[in-house]
Amino acid sequence: MKKFALGILVMLLATGITFAQVDRSKLPASGPAPEIKIGEAETFTLANGLKVFVVKNTKLPRVSFTLVLERDPILEGDKAGLTTFIGDMMMGGTKNRTKDQLDQEIDFIGASLSASATSVSVSSLKKHQGKVLDLMADVLFNPVFPQPELDKLKKQSLTGLATTKDDPQAISSRLSRAVLYGKNHPYGESQTEQTTKNITLEDVKAYYQTYFKPNIAYLAIVGDIDKAEAQKVVNQYFGTWKMGVVPTFTYPMPVRAAKQAVALVDRSSSVQSVIDVTQPVAMKIGDADYISSRLLNQILGGGSASRLFMNLREDKGFTYGAYSSIDADKLVGTISASASVRSEVTDSAVYEFVYEIKNLVEKGVTQVELDKAKAELAGSFGRSLEQPGTVANFALNTARYNLPKDYYATYLQKLNSYTVADINATAKRLIEPDKFIITTVGNGAEIKEKLAQFGEVVEYDIMGEPAKQLVADAAMTPEKVLENYLTAVGGADKVAAVKSAKISMDANVMGTPLTIAFVYDSQNGRYGQKWSIAGNVMQKTMLANGKGSMSAQGNVLEMDPAQLAEAQLNSYLFPEAVYKANGYSVTLDGLKDVEGKPAYKVVITTASGSKLTNYYAQDSGLKVKYENPSFGDTYFNDYQAKNGVLLPMSWTIKSPQIPVPLEAKLTSLELNVPVTDGDIN
Prior knowledge:
The chain is an alpha+beta fold. It is 34% helix and 28% strand. It has three domains: 42-165 and 191-238, Cytochrome Bc1 Complex, Chain A, domain 1 (2-Layer Sandwich); 261-460, CATH 3.30.830.10; 478-680, Clam (outer membrane lipoprotein receptor (LolB), chain A). The strands form three sheets. A 13-stranded antiparallel sheet has the order 18-17-16-15-14-13-25-24-23-22-21-20-19. Strands 1-2-6-3-5-4 form a six-stranded mixed sheet, sandwiched between helices. β9 and β10 form a beta hairpin. α11 runs antiparallel to α12. The radius of gyration is 32 Å and the shape is globular. The termini are far apart. The relative contact order is 0.10.
């Protein structure tokens, strides 16, 4: 048998017959787009104007009801943030149930119930349908809006805002929206501490009474239910809902920049820059360029095989990921490309963004790229159909955007019909490469001058407002700043007299009490720092006997000679007095805004070349902020006199190692007291 098989093989080779080889470097040829049979939603409308869409799906004994309000975006102004509270306030209790009772009843039947400023939704097993509809209707029609719930939400929001003020991604988002839309546009405004404090219970009630009306609402029902049953239960629970006049709003279309420009937030502690290259675009779902723009974006930066990703990550190694988006919106959409990159390559990364966008518009896409993009989007579309809720969303979109009834049923055919010429024409219509705003959050001292090649650089603060124009004393030097500080805290003589100190501070991290203890012994070059929870030391730094170490939860890291030399400065309660003596250089980097106050920025460079940054208030001379690229920022407040010197009684620590800003209060202070090895260890 083996001989026979071998003979056949020899004969085939001799006659020149070969087997076809598969070229796996090329995508297989595309076949015709399949027809997608999407189950149509059945619809009906109540007398009060509520539009209902029913998608029957009996694969699982479940049912969901999702109510969506179709209102215009609202410019909230000095109440910015109001709409973020509405859903939680509605879930805060009703005339019939407290918040706890609501939660218990939902959990007992394994259901889900949620609300927002524009929606209420519920999902459960079919057998609990009546119960969850009763709960949904109770939340929708009978909220009591308890004041304590609003107080709690405002407090939580203020804590969150404090965190986002030091989050580069959040800062970048605020900046991009502010420069793209303007603060007088609902998409451009940002919630602040003050706007949050301005929100009252009456504001919440007024919003609810104004916008929760059936004549602007859509109800999507998905699951084990048919139209006849849906009509019965919808009339039962929502039929008496009263219509009302809902205000409408119009806003001017944001215009693109006349020419390319750069918006910068100077965050000197940043070791990375957050870059966003953006411009507005007038495009809604269903517009002529909508589907082709999906393909265009997929090629530019829609995934890990896109041009931006392959360039900035795979080729240049600037970032972990570079992506783009082309978003459609009834009001105004956006074209955007973004990445976080190392500070030293910020300008190079911006250059590549600009190059790829311009190259896409001027030279167009290839057939290979288009075929791959079609395959990726077709696959994504197909996978979305596995979720029953997708059909309901399609029905809602069809109504909200006045789409043809077969828009989604023929989506793949439309997707597959686009040619290279079509995509290239879309690029030229949608994108103006020389009119992008390049927003950047990063270390201004390192990147500002380099960014000037891309257009005028305008600085903004962390809330997206134009940076204050601060005027520094022309005669000011870094040495003078330090001299003013030493004078402000009590004078050089009194500072020099402080040879040791023991400080204890109490703080709280997400409800967990924390104690921070510091020991300074400048005479003997010793220093100790301990972070403790419930008496247990979680983190410790120690300098003694010419050695230094850092430990956390049992893991000890010994300092190398360079680290030790830098850390010796920690043994001084007032290190400003010994910068020069220890061989550190100081430079003045202008006047900066620190929490709304002008402060001189002084950069301290160690012998090894590492840098620390302090900020000293222009008016008082006191140190108000300390930056460390590794450990974050510390803000100093509430200076009080102790033994003839001024020290801050309150610290705010913002560190990448801490999920929320840490507020620490000084609880004990001892100056010029004996220090033992036990105090350090």
